Amino acid sequence: MKIYTKTGDKGTTSLIYGERVAKNDLRVEAYGTCDEANSMIGLGLSTLPQEEWARDFTEVMQKVQTVLFHVGAELATPQGKKVSWMLEDKDIVFLENTIDEWQSSLKPLKQFILPGGAAPASALHTARTIARRAERIAVGVESVNPAVLSYLNRLSDFLFVAARYVNHKMGISEPVLHEKTE
Predict the structure, then answer these.
(1) 102 half-sphere exposure, CB direction, 13 A CA radius
(2) Is residue 89's pLDDT more than 70?
(3) Is the pLDDT of residue 57 over 80?
(4) Distance CA 155, CA 68 (A)
């Protein structure tokens, strides 16, 4: 099978079920942005140390990546068509439970932190901002499953805590917002 089809050479692409839309259609923007967030998560995972906690962390993150892939597929399904795999409340609850678990080992925030720290944490902070963009775009998609919006909203919170958790596990101090100097 060839990887290139040439069917998109004129600025259109196919949704699931074959419906052709412009490549800048909101559905394409939304699922493409989910893919971008997923890729950034993968980049972050590729830079983790080879330690047991990192293997456990990677396992959790790959579950999230799988769900995020399916969120993209749901966004790529035209209105009125059946989705082969539908997001469920349990997927959102998984994010919330993991946030609570990881956050219990972190110091409470007393000031704003800046994105950064260890390389994998920085990538997860970037993935968080991409997930927020995916959410903003998905809001405009006609008849989007409300669970998709909830998942993307919770995902950005999850990625924020995941970045903090990685910095904590790697013994890296989180960069903090400095007061304005004159």
Answers:
(1) 25
(2) yes
(3) yes
(4) 9
